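Sample intake sheet
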Amino acid sequence: MATPETDEDRIRTILPLVYDELRRLARHYIRRERANHTLGPTALVHEAYLRLAEQTSTLWKNRGHFYSIAAQAMRRVLVNHAVHRRRIKRGGGREAVEFDEQQVMCLDDSVDLISVDEALQSLAEVDEQKARVVEMKFFGSLTNEETAEALGVSVTTVKREWRLARIWLLKQLNAGERT
């Protein structure tokens, strides 16, 4: 009689199949980070893998759902890394940053990842679905179709939620600059 497959066994089986795609996503994230970022794509994938391996009884419904969870894990790694960096940096204060709607969804050296994460957490308190759409599209680089599949909604709904979430985040980030 075969023993039941554990979550860790499933992850070990899946990882080689999705590793290249996870590295592509990680390279995408790291390119958005500051130039002297200390995490590389491989380290980001491995840290995200450890987080995925720690999850118990997670059943991935489909490819989009898996990548959504992986994107969330990568986001947590990057945010935790930014928090740690801020903590050890003398002063640790935030820089004021000018935002326009295009920059809200495009991280570069000038965007404070922690502020984006805090705004996304606030959005989740108001509208969980919009926050999930942002997380999948922005942090997961999923297409509208993949996001719709993962959430079980229409592509039209994803487009609408994405547009409204970007506007909401823009307002949040701009309000944070004034305080």
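Comment: The chain is about 70% helix and 0% strand. Residues 72 and 135 are 7 Å apart (CA to CA).
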